[in-house]
Amino acid sequence: MDKLKMQTLDGVQRNIDKIAVLFPNCITEKMATDGGIVHAIDFDKLRQELSSEIVEGREERYQFTWPDKKKAILLANSPINATLRPCREESVDFDNTQNLYIEGDNLDVLKCLKETYLGKVKMIYIDPPYNTGKDFVYNDDYMQNVKSYIDNSGQLDYVGNQLEPNLESNGRFHTDWLNMIYPRIKISKDLLADDGIMFVSIDEHEISNLKKILTEIFGDSCYIGTLIIQTATDNNPGQIKIEHEYMLCICKNRNTLRNWENNKEETKYIQTEYERLKKIYCDDCEKIQDGLRIYIKKNSKLLKGITHYDNVDSKGVFHDGDIANTAFGGYEYDLIHPVTKKVCKMPEKGFRFPWDTMKRMLEEDNILFGKDETTLPKPKNRLEDVKDKLRSVIYEDGRSSTKRFELLMARDIFQNPKSDTILARLIEFICKDGDIVLDFFSGSGTTAEAVFNLALKDIKLKFILVQLQENLDESIKVATSKAKKTMTNAINFLDSIKKPHLIMRISS
């Protein structure tokens, strides 16, 4: 038998719900008389929706605000009475290590780090809670320590990123998330070097609010762009199959940035094969070219994106590019064929290079002519000039990151760990030897793994990782059934390596 509800319906709330259906733009979050946050109606907006004339109300201005925003700013700026305590007994070569793994609330830790690392961090990457309606957010009540807060709330997220569930039914749904993320990003900006970069992972739930926070704190001109990370295939029923996440990128000072490009890793395979064939066939470019094309065809998956670099001349490997301009109005001049001594056919839209550039390319043997003047010449794009550039869409099978993590650890300890290969690629674009990379939502420790992998390529970096301490034995008592299964796997793994049941001991 269903229990009787000993309370009548809330007529005000019912009316608000009805108005929300007709005018969703008029629903906002506001401070209640008891200090809480509730859904409410913006009456100025509602009156304007119901009027054919301009309705007088509050002065209009462009702004991004929410309840308690002033408190979030105050929280970011306020000092704390805390310090970082070294754990020599739990460290490896404490006196010589260049890396830090810090247990604690990341807001407190960021404030402590300002004492030593102000303006010294080259890159920050964070993967904060996405506010999906199922995850958690920090409750920034510093009158309680972590243990007493757990006792009071009865909640802990198993990855340590959150302490309090933020459900969609919560009247403070966006407010709580904004108040959590804003002060942390604001403080972290101070840690960035003048040419520092910040990347933040997010999905569609809060991407618009996150971008507004970043541009408010760093400035519109510092926003670099958004990466789309495609990692999944969604076959669930619904309307749009979401198969990607986002990574927002912003900088400390746009004027200090250089262009991001690296030597493309795959080119070394073609170059190695070219050098092997050259030892066999000496200066016979035709035979070297034939052999190289056979190799490229057999290894097309390994050489993705550069299989068209399959031509050989006396200088090495090249791709015959396009000499025509992409739009009408290109450069026009006479280009003489070296054999027939006649003027070569000119592209309909003109040449893409000015004459000075063309002259230099001719002198350097970087123009490929046809058998006579009737064939358009082509530029020789050299293999050694191929650069890896950061493009806005990145694809990687999300299962590969999970498999790599499981090879290092065990199965089903962390769900959907971030890609260490994508992170390593981003870091390589931005950082140089000796630079510091910071991650204050460290989770499974992917950022550290990326830095270690780059060390194998002789790129020597330092990392600082921050993770909230969490006892899995306590967390599992209040976890959902799905989370309990993952926590049990984590506890079993920690037992196998004889470590205490703390979340950080998995990745550290």
The number of distinct β-strands equals 18
CATH architecture term of the largest domain: 3-Layer(aba) Sandwich
What's the rounded overall pLDDT mean?
82
Low-confidence stretches: 142-162
Number of structural units classed as domains: 3
Give the overall shape. Answer: globular
Describe the largest sheet. 8 strands, mixed
**The CATH H-level homologous superfamily of the largest domain:** Vaccinia Virus protein VP39
Secondary structure: helix percent: 25-40%
With helices defined by DSSP (H or I, 4 residues minimum), what is the helix count?
A: 16
Question: What is the gyration radius calculated from CA atoms?
Answer: 29 Å
CATH class of the largest domain: Alpha Beta
Strand content: 15-25%
Cα distance spanning the termini: 51 Å
Output the structural class.
alpha/beta
Strand order of the largest sheet: 3-18-17-4-7-9-8-16
Give a description of the structure.
With 508 residues, this protein is of the alpha/beta class. The chain folds into 3 domains: 51 residues, no CATH class; 281 residues, Rossmann fold, CATH 3.40.50; 110 residues, no CATH class. Helices cover 34% and strands 17% of the residues. The protein is built from 16 helices and 18 strands. It has an 8-stranded mixed beta sheet, sandwiched between helices. A hairpin with a 5-residue loop joins strand 1 and strand 2. Helix 3 packs parallel to helix 6 and helix 8 runs antiparallel to helix 9. The chain is globular, with a radius of gyration of 29 Å. About 4% of the residues have low confidence.
